[in-house]
Write a structure and sequence with these properties.
This protein is an alpha/beta fold. It is built from 7 helices and 10 strands. A hairpin with a 2-residue loop joins strand 1 and strand 2. Helix 5 packs parallel to helix 6. The two termini are 29 Å apart.
């Protein structure tokens, strides 16, 4: 399993964000985690990229286990994970090209390799014509596609998407989700947190429901609606 979470709990003060969560995600799988605001979705994603650690239980991702991590392991793990946030988190003073290139530049890739990868990703996202633009010149949907391209720059094994369509209109949301599906079909495992799973096409993902820190399985978003 690429991701294995066993009996993981995480509390913040007196608030139990996650309560004995167990989850396995295989290589190349698309998993959608739904639930209301405050259900623990973001905490679950943070445990996967080990931006936070469980109080009990363990998380194992791409061979790295939470209760055995050393300082040098964190950077090694995060090179295997791409993250897309609801608020894009693009650098406002950098062009679209430079935003997407940033992970590659930081990792020491050659200029030639950077250009090849960035041009390829921008073409995939339909944004080649925007490479010299700045984030404020793009629509919300375009900015989110730039964020996805940046998250994919270093060829991650896993893409985590935290409410990636939360600030987008329906048309832009549909495009973003289709890009995530296409990325998954290319072999990247995708774990997406969303409060509204209805835009995910049937048969394209495994659905889970998180509420009050507890995780349950579902066959489709229709089944999720029945658990509410």
């Amino acid at each position: 399993m690429l991701i294995e979470i066993e009996g993981a709990s995480r509390s913040y003060g007196h608030w139990p964000a996650l309560d004995q969560v167990t989850l396995q995600v295989a290589e190349g799988e698309f998993v959608v985690v739904s639930g209301p605001s405050g259900a623990g979705k973001t905490t679950l994603l943070r445990l996967i990229w080990m931006g936070d650690m469980p109080d009990r239980g363990f998380v194992q991702v791409a061979g790295f286990r939470s209760d055995m991590m050393k300082r040098r392991h964190f950077a090694m793990l995060r090179r295997k994970i791409g993250i897309v946030f609801q608020d894009f988190r693009l650098l406002p003073d950098r062009t679209i090209f430079d935003n997407v290139a940033l992970p590659l530049v930081v990792s020491g890739s050659s200029s030639r390799a950077v250009r090849k990868r960035v041009f390829s990703l921008l073409a995939l996202m339909g944004l080649s014509h925007r490479r010299n633009s700045y984030p404020h010149q793009l629509s919300g949907g375009e900015q989110q596609r730039v964020a996805i391209a940046r998250a994919m720059a270093a060829h991650p094994l896993i893409l985590l998407a935290d409410e990636p369509t939360g600030n987008l209109d329906p048309e832009a949301s549909t495009k973003v989700i289709q890009h995530l599906i296409d990325i998954n079909r290319g072999g990247t495992a995708v774990v997406m947190a969303t409060h509204d799973p209805r835009r995910i096409p049937p048969g394209s993902a495994r659905f889970l429901f998180l509420d009050g820190g507890r995780l349950t399985n579902a066959e489709s978003w229709q089944d999720l609606e029945e658990t509410r």
